[in-house]
Specification:
By secondary structure, the chain is mainly α. It has one domain. It contains three helices and no strands.
């Protein structure tokens, strides 16, 4: 688990030096989701080895969802790089 956290931190540092803050934040978010997916897959494997079939299926489904979320973040980042996606400007509250 410490190795995964270190890898996420390293990926974040590399992302910050290679691109702007928005892209870096998306890269870090994608890496975190992929790390969570890996952890869930490992837990599912352990549950399978222990014969906990229902637990394994639940963890596999959660891992799949994490992977899909990571893919969506990555796809959104790629669209922004290509200029195909409009970035919404923050709306200021008028009081």
């Amino acid at each position: 688990m410490k190795k995964i956290a270190f890898a996420v931190a390293a990926a974040g540092a590399i992302a910050l030096t290679a691109c702007g803050p928005q892209e870096a934040a998306e890269e870090v978010q994608e890496q975190e989701l992929e790390s969570q997916e890996d952890i869930l897959e490992e837990e599912a494997d352990m549950a399978d080895e222990l014969g906990m079939e229902a637990e394994e299926e639940m963890l596999d489904e959660q891992a799949d969802e994490m992977g899909e979320m990571a893919d969506e973040v990555g796809d959104d980042a790629n669209l922004m790089e290509e200029g195909d996606m409009e970035v919404e400007e923050p709306v200021e509250d008028e009081m």
